[in-house]
Amino acid sequence: MTSSEARTRTVAAIVAAIAIALGSSPARAQRSAADVETARELYNSGRTLKEHGDLKGALEKLKAAHALGRTPITGLELARTYAALGQPVDAREVCLGVARLPVSPEETARSAEARVAAAKLAEEVKPKIAALRLRIRGAPPGAEPIVTVDGIAVPAAALTEARQVNPGTHALTARVANGPETKETADLKEGEVRDVELAVTPPREPAAPQAAPSAPARAGGDGSVERRLSPWVIPGFAVAAAGVGVGAVTGVLAASAKSDLNSKCVGSHCGPEAYDTLDRGKLLGNVSTIAFIDGGVGAAAGIYGLTHPVTAGPASPRAAFVKPYVSAGALGIHGSF
Question: Do the domain assignments include residue 266?
Answer without folding.
Answer: yes
